[in-house]
Amino acid sequence: MNCSILAIGTELLLGSLENTNASFIAGRLAENGIDSFLQVTVGDNEKMIHRALEFCLSSSDAVIITGGLGSTEDDVTKSALSSFFHRELVLDREIESHLEERFAGIDRTVYQRIKKQAYILEGSRIIQPMGTAPGLILEEGDKLIICLPGVPGEMRFMMEKSVLPLLVSRGKGSQDVIISRFLRIVGLSEPAIETAIMDIVKAQQNPTLAMLPGLGEVQIRLTARARGREEAQELLGTVEKQIRERLGNKIFGIDEEDPEKVVGDMCRKRGLSLSAAESCTGGLFSSRITSVPGSSDYFRGSVVSYSNESKKKILGVRSSFLRSFGAVSKEVAEEMAKGARNLFATDIAVSCTGIAGPKGGTEEKPVGLVFLGLCSDSMLVSERTRYYGSRKDIQYRATQSMLDLIRRFLLGEQLGGRGN
Amino acid sequence: MNCSILAIGTELLLGSLENTNASFIAGRLAENGIDSFLQVTVGDNEKMIHRALEFCLSSSDAVIITGGLGSTEDDVTKSALSSFFHRELVLDREIESHLEERFAGIDRTVYQRIKKQAYILEGSRIIQPMGTAPGLILEEGDKLIICLPGVPGEMRFMMEKSVLPLLVSRGKGSQDVIISRFLRIVGLSEPAIETAIMDIVKAQQNPTLAMLPGLGEVQIRLTARARGREEAQELLGTVEKQIRERLGNKIFGIDEEDPEKVVGDMCRKRGLSLSAAESCTGGLFSSRITSVPGSSDYFRGSVVSYSNESKKKILGVRSSFLRSFGAVSKEVAEEMAKGARNLFATDIAVSCTGIAGPKGGTEEKPVGLVFLGLCSDSMLVSERTRYYGSRKDIQYRATQSMLDLIRRFLLGEQLGGRGN
C-alpha cells in the first residue's frame, strides 16, 4: 500500500499557514508501515485539484486529501471530486438530521451554510466526525480516495479512529514498519554530541541516526525499519543503549517526554514540592510546568516579579543587594529562590533573572545574560549563563536551563558551574 | 510568472520534520507578486524527483527546489537533475578553492565528502551560499529551475539575496502583487462572523475573503491583487472599513498585532500599570504579556497561586470564600484580582481561576469552567465562561479571554456578562 497526501487550501499557497497536517499524516503512515512517497499542495481551485488528483492517483494506491470540506464559499473539495469522478453530490439524511439536532435554534441563514456539509459524493462512505464536517471514503477502481477536514484536531481524530485501521487492514504491499525514537538532550551542543557518538552514527544502517537541533535542546532521531513493531523496537533499544553509555544523564527523555514532564514526574515520585520566582522568563517556567496534567500534585505556585519593588516586597530580596549587585546578579537570583521557597513553603524553589532583550543590555550585562538560582533545605546555589537569539528564544532557553537545573539537582549532580 | 515549489527530503515523508521551507517560500513569492499554485514533496529518490519535476514543469514557468544539496550519501538532488536534463555534473574550480580554503586542515575523509558540493550541473549558474552548499540556477528552454539547500537559514538567505530579485526582474506575465491582511477577532464564533458579513464576502472579488478559525480567535483574511503595493493596500483598506462597520471593537487587531501586544500598547499609551493573579492558566497570561519587548513599562508582575494556601497567604483571598464558594468561583476570582492589585500596587489587575482538566471536573463545575476577574480603582467584576478542548487549549483560551477582558475594560465596554 502506497499512499500520497494531497493538501488543499489557498492559505497553504500564500504561506500564511504551515502544512502541519501533511507531516502528521506522513508520520502516522510511516509508523504503521504504510509507504508514502508523495505530498502535493494546491489551492481551493478545481482545475488544480483535478491535476493534482491525476498525479497522485498515477503514483499511488491511495490518496489522503485534507482541507476544503467546510461550509464556506471557498471550500470546493467535494465539488472538485464530483466533477473529477463524475459522481453527483447527494444529500445524506443521517448527517442532515445530526446537523439539525446539533444546530437546533441557530440562525437559519447560518444553518443553510452549515447544511452544505450534509452533501456527499454518490457511492461514498462517511467517516464519523468529531466536529461537524464528516470525512469521506471513495473507492474508484482499485484506488482509495480518503477526504478529511483541514482542521487539525478533526483530521487527527479521523486518522486515528477510522483511516489508519482501514489502511492497515487493507495491508497491500510492504508489511515493514518504520518507527522513530527521539533521544532528547539539554546542555550539549550538536557538534559535541556528534563528536561523542560519531562512530556509532557511522556504523549504523538500521536504525539510521540523524541529529535535529532545536531551541534549547538537541534530539537524536533513530529510525528503524523491520518486519514488525517489536523487532523495530528492539533495534532501536540496542542503539539507544550504546548512545546512553556515552551521553548518560545528558539525555533527559525520549519522544514526548518534555522536560517539564520529566521534572514533574521526578518531583511526584519523591514527594517533593516545587515553586518558582521568575523575572526575565515572565511566567513561562510556571506555564510550562502547569501545562502538564496533574502538576498541582507538586507545583505550589510562583511569583513573577517584574519590578524591583515586587522582588523586595513579595520575595524579600534585600534592597542592598539590588543596589550593589543589580537585579541581574547571582546574589539576587539566590535571594529570589530563597524567597519563593519561604513564601510557598516548598521543598525546592528555582529562580531566574536576566536580560531577555532586545533592549536593556550593557557591555557588562549584555542581552542574553541570565542567572538561575535553586534553593532547597540543604542548598542555595546559582549559575550564570548566556543565551543568544530573539527575546522569545532567550526566555525559552532560560526555562530549559531552569528545568535542567532542577533535574540535575534531583540526580545529585554537582551544581553551580558555568562560570559562576 | 508562475512558480511551483518542490521540496526534497525523506525526512519530510516520515513526518519527522515540518515543511517550513515551502510555507516560507510561498509567502515571499506572494508578497512579491509571483503566483504559486503548486507545492510538491518527495523523498531523496531519483525516480520520484523525476516524476515531480515533470509535473511541476508542466504546471509552471519556474520551479524552486529545496533540499538534497548537501554532502551526505542521501543527497541526490543534483544527480537526479543531471539525469533528468541530460547535463553532466562538472567540477567548479571556484567553489573547490573556496572549500579548500575553508576546510584547510580538516580530516581528508570528511573533506572528500564535502567536495561533492563543488560539482554543479553543466551550464548552470551558482547562487552564492551563506553556508557551504551553493545554490544553482538552470535555464531549460523557457523554464527556470532554481535549486536551494534545505537548511532553512541558508535557503532563506539565498531567497532574499538572489532568487527573489531574479524572479521579480524577470517579470514574466503578471506584474501584480498579492498582499494579505488579517483581521483578528476574539469573542465571536466563525459562523456568527460569517453571518454578520456574508453579503460583503459574496460581493467581493478583489480582495477575496477567507475565514480562518484558530485557537480562541478567528481571523478574516483579505487578499488583494493589484498592480502595485499601494493600490493593493487601498483595496484592502476599503473592505476592512466595511467589515469594521459591522464588527467594530470585536476586531482587536490586524496581522501581527497579537492580543498581548494590543493590550500592552493600550496600557502604555494611557500610563496604566498591570498585574495578574493566575490559577488554572498557571503563568501563561504573564508569559504572553512579557513576551512583548518593553512590557516592563506597564507590567509589574503576577502571582501564580496554584494552591488554596497561596491564594490565602499571598493574595489575601478569604478562607470563608474558599470554603463556601470553592476555589473555582466568581467570588474567588474577584478576590484574586483585588489581591494582585494591592500586592503589586497597579492600576489594573486581572485574575483567572478554573478547571483546566483533563481531571478534576464535577457535574456542577465541569472541566473548562473558568472565572475571570478584573479589579481597577472603580470596578471589581468577574465573568464566567466555559471552554472546550485539551488542557493546553483551555489554558490558552482562558488567557485570550483575560486579554480581551482588559481590552474591553479599557474601551469602556460593559463588563460582567456571559452568565455571570
UniProtKB/TrEMBL annotation, chains A, B:
Transmembrane region(s): none
Pfam families (UniProt xref): CinA (PF02464), CinA_KH (PF18146), MoCF_biosynth (PF00994)
Domain of life: Bacteria
Domain MoaB/Mog, chain residue ranges per copy: 4-170
Gene3D superfamilies: 3.30.70.2860, CinA-like, MoaB/Mog-like domain
Family: Belongs to the CinA family.
PANTHER family reported for this sequence: NICOTINAMIDE-NUCLEOTIDE AMIDOHYDROLASE PNCC (PTHR13939), NMN AMIDOHYDROLASE-LIKE PROTEIN YFAY (PTHR13939:SF0)
Protein's recorded name: CinA-like protein
